[in-house]
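[#protein-structures] MJ: dropping HEAT repeat domain-containing protein here for a structure pass
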Amino acid sequence: MPDWTLDDTQWRPEWFSLPAYAEKIPAFLRILREADDINSIEMARASLEHAVALSHGLHEGAYHVIPFLIELLRFRESHAKAEIYNLLVEIACSEPLDEADTIVGDDGRTPVALSTACRDRLMQVLPVAWHDLANDDDEEVVFQAMDFIGAVDPDKRRFVHYLRNSAASFGDKCRRNAEDWLAEYDSTDHFPP
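AK: finished. structure tokens for HEAT repeat domain-containing protein:
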């Protein structure tokens, strides 16, 4: 398990949809890291979503939470991993409440648009998501990894090619999801077979 210093992280109240979330973020992340209880995991994911991407309104806290979520994807199994992908999809589909929202970039000096900074961090998840899409035995993890890749990966041709070649090998739920993604791309982007 990752050896985090969650309590050392300065979770600022202005980063979240409600200031009170700042003191609760470490507990939610610990639940995602350690819990086996499905209800606790779902509650932690939903609480984090409300804190950083409430009603698809992106808050700066998302930028600071994503690295912890990436680490969790590398070692958590099944239900927790599916819930983490679910949260990452919600972050990916959210937009800043103010288009002018910027944060200080990783270099500690340069202002960066919040949406760009989050997108850059979400791109770091793609290798893990592609691995899980191709190799995980849990259908819910595969389903959520597929949704994450569909929402984030700029290489739509690769995604469409993979789904066309692999859809038949998926379980029912994932096969239907792959068919939905293919129908969406075929109707808008016209990728040749």
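MJ: nice. The mean pLDDT is 88.
AK: one more thing. The CA atoms of residues 61 and 140 lie 26 Å apart.
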